[in-house]
Amino acid sequence: MSSDTRTGGRLGSVADGYNDRFGHLFGEMNALQLLFLAASLVGLLAAPLWTSLLGVEGFLRTFALASIWAILAMGWDIQSGYTGYISFGHAVLSGGAAYATALLLTHVNPDLPFLVTAPISVLVALGIGLAIAIPSLRLRGPYFSLVTFVAGLIFYQLTYAFSGITGGELGQRVGRLQFEVAGLEVTTFDPVTRYYVMLIPMLVIAVALLYVARSNVGMILIAIRENEEAVAAAGIDTTKFKIWSFVLSSIPMGIGGVLLAYFYGTVNPVNFLLVDRSIEMIAMAVVGGMSSILGPVGGAFLVIFLREEVLYVFGTTGRWVALWTAVLLVLVFARDGLFRKLWHKLGDRGATGGDDE
Predict the structure, then answer these.
(1) How far apart are CA 220 and CA 83, in angstroms?
(2) pLDDT tens, residue by residue, 148-191
(3) In DSSP terms, which residues pair with 173 in a beta bridge?
(4) Does an H or E element contain 41, and which?
(5) Entry pTM
(6) Which residues contact 242 (CB under 8 A, 6 or more apart)?
(7) d(CA 343, CA 338)
(8) Can you say how many angstroms the Cα of residue 5 is from the centroid of all Cα atoms in its chain?
(9) What residues contact 143, with CB distance under 8 A and at least 6 apart?
(10) pLDDT class of 350 with cuts at 50, 70, 90
């Protein structure tokens, strides 16, 4: 399907070509939206270069951390943003995967390769996700949210109850990530390598979730959010699809949890299981724009950059006050999210109009 692009020129032709080939898979874009997306991608891929030229190499650590949180925010979004079943316990999924990695390295074999521990850890996240989803998704509204919230509290306390295994408050050490690809050793001791190790999975997951979100599965999840009774009346098993949403969510949550464990080098309950971590994921998705996949990516980068690089001027406690105040202002004045709003503006400026649903 070809799109009419008033911006014209080569960029308009490129947008038309994209829409013809991939628009039905990932959503159509006009020339301005395509330019914005391409510029953002180039900026991320070339970050080691331009941060070095500008003398802000420390930004690489922030962008690596933001990439991980973008994975977590997208993982939350495909479940809660698309179905409308708001989870306050998603940190349990990422935390479960992180703890699985730490416990395997601590209690089984410290030399276990990443390609062994990572899949097992993601499966643990998937198992936890199903354990929460199967009994709770028959509930609705605040009852579902309360169940996920309480599940988060239980897992948090379990790390202290079994401190002999989990390390309690101090947690367990994971160390840095090291593995080989095609004979080349990859280690996250190097800041540039660490950045790409965190960035590339984020980009792959974003593409995969965009595809799912625009498939029939994604459409049904949105329909469940809008009118679950009507979907059920059409003969569709809504519970099955809601469980699928947890499955789709648990996999990126597990991957994000593993990457976060290697990013910090240790796994402890405060950094991984505290309910604040779940709230942060929600805030990132809301700031960027829920149920859009790319919105939570933008929200994660904005929130992490503000938290790590800008709001430090207010002090350790003051930056959190400033950050949550900013999130509150977005909730009040831009409920659809900043990046979603920008995306629609770009869509309005072009001829085809934005389409991020």
Answers:
(1) 9
(2) 999 999 999 999 999 999 999 999 999 888 877 777 777 888 89
(3) 266
(4) helix 31-45
(5) 0.92
(6) 83, 85, 133, 137, 221, 224
(7) 9
(8) 32
(9) none
(10) low
Do the Cβ atoms of 171 and 102 come closer than 8 Å? yes
Q: Which two tokens stand for residue 38?
A: 């391409």
Tell me the Ramachandran region of residue 134: left when phi exceeds 0, alpha when psi lies from -120 to 50, beta otherwise: alpha
d(CA 150, CA 350): 46
Q: Which two tokens stand for residue 216?
A: 């029939």
Range in 66-80, 129-143, 193-207, 275-289 the model is least confident about: 129-143
Encoded amino acid at 184, one letter: L
d(CA 155, CA 225): 28
- At which residue do the structure tokens 């109009």 appear? 353
CA 49 to chain centre: 25
Find out whether 276 and 324 touch, Cβ atoms under 8 Å.
no
* C-alpha dihedral (65, 68, 70, 75), degrees to nearest 10: -160
Mean pLDDT value across residues 77-105: 94
Residue written as token pair 């950050």 = 323
**Measured distance CA(285)–CA(119) in Å, rounded:** 26
